[in-house]
Amino acid sequence: MAVTPLHRHSKVKRMVVSTYQAASGAGAAAMRELELQTKEVLEGKPPTTKIFSRQVGLFVVNYSSFDNDVRVTATCIRVPVTRPHAESINLQFENQLDEFLLNFLTDTAREILKRSPGLVVIDDRTANNFPTPLEVSNKDDVAASRIRRLVSQEGNYGLDIFVCGDQIREGAALNVVQIAEMLI
Predict the structure, then answer these.
(1) CA distances from 144 to 10, 84, 100, 148 (A)
(2) Architecture of the domain whose range is 3-183
(3) Using one digit for the tens of pLDDT, what is the confidence trace for 109-157?
(4) DSSP code, position 129
């Protein structure tokens, strides 16, 4: 959701994304298992693993994906929170960014994201204020933060962003309502 408005402004050539997915992404039974596993681990007992193939309670589970055709490298990590999901996104644009973006890259990206429906920018480095799963839970908007120039490659081709959003609202229930409203 945060990538689309930036892609419209300057075509994305490559994306590396790491997702941090809440237990609720695997359903209500998975949330109950997360709670049970956390209790069991804190009590020194072996965790129950019926829904998840391994311990998730107080643990991080890694899943990876790679697709040469799309030029997207994705890593999915299940984290021990009930909701929502978060993503670290690394973008490389097809062309060097124009002079305006070169000088004001992060401010311009912030402005593009601020104007995008369904997105809110929470990116206050001086106060160390960035979105957390707790703050965006049960909210419709996806929060974008840590917007910064990509310094790991030469040239002015890239941007790093962190987003966090309630996958039950945006990506599931809210989208159904929005589609129904368009049809009415």
Answers:
(1) 18, 14, 21, 11
(2) 2-Layer Sandwich (3.30)
(3) 888 888 888 889 998 888 988 888 888 888 989 999 998 888 787 777 7
(4) B
